[in-house]
Amino acid sequence: MRVFRDATATARTMGVAVGAAVTSYIRSAPGTYIWLAALFVTAVAMHHMSPEFEAEFLRQRSTNIHELSRNPVRVLISSAFWIDGGGWLSYAVLYTVFHASAERGLGTRRWLAVAALSHALATLVSEGVLALAVHHGAAPRSAVNTLDVGVSYALAGVVAVLTYRVPAPWRYGYLLVVLAVYGTPLITGRTFTDLGHFTAVLIGLACYPLTRGAAHRPRERVRKSPPP
């Protein structure tokens, strides 16, 4: 009986320790997990929509050519809070691995700047190229209303900026993998989303100035001199 009580107490202590560690990690990257919580709410909302209503609902919040020409700021913001395909749990893993790591390393403001720049600029570049393709007849007119929501451009930019957080010589291997993962679809598929993802990677790499001096250092304790 005593062995059982000791084992229970040990398990409870370990559970408390794990819970404290998880809570501490989440608090160290508040922006990441607030965003992830918002995505959870919208993902649940989408599960209660009919397929027809969902398609029209997301199209109105999409960063397609039509919506960008009407209200670019609104759709650039709203599109970052909806997931088009893929499960929320997969994003929870990706956010924990990449976004949380970047926020912890760069600080919330710099991480958010990288994510926002990657999301907005990659969207404008990819949709701008698509608009040119439509104008010259290389893409159908219906492409102006294409569905384009999600957080993948922001994620690609953050994945790229983490290159500068990886110590050498592993940094160069990491960079090659990132370029291969996002560059191969651009060569083989050549869709506007492939262009957007690769553009986001380049934007993330261009955010190197935001990484300088961003390392988190433990606070030094100031020792007071004893009174004379």
Can you walk me through this structure?
- The chain is mainly alpha-helical and 228 residues long.
- 71% of the residues lie in helices and 0% in strands.
- It contains eleven helices and no strands.
- 28% of the residues are buried.
- Residues 216-228 have low confidence and may be disordered.
Question: What can be said about this structure in brief?
Answer:
By secondary structure, this protein is mainly α.
Secondary-structure map:
Layout: H1 2-27, H2 30-47, H3 51-60, H4 65-70, H5 72-78, H6 88-106, H7 108-135, H8 152-161, H9 170-188, H10 192-206, H11 208-211
Helix pairs in contact: 2-6, 6-7, 6-8, 7-8, 7-10, 8-10, 9-10
Features:
11 helices, mainly alpha, 228 residues, 0% strand, disordered C terminus
Given helix and strand content, the structural type is mainly alpha
What number is the mean pLDDT?
A: 86
Quote the beta fraction.
under 5%
Q: What's the Cα radius of gyration?
A: 22 Å
Order of H and E elements: HHHHHHHHHHH
Number of helices: 11
User: What's the story with the biggest beta sheet?
Assistant: none
Shape: globular
- Which stretches are low in confidence, meaning pLDDT under 50 for 5 or more residues running? 216-228
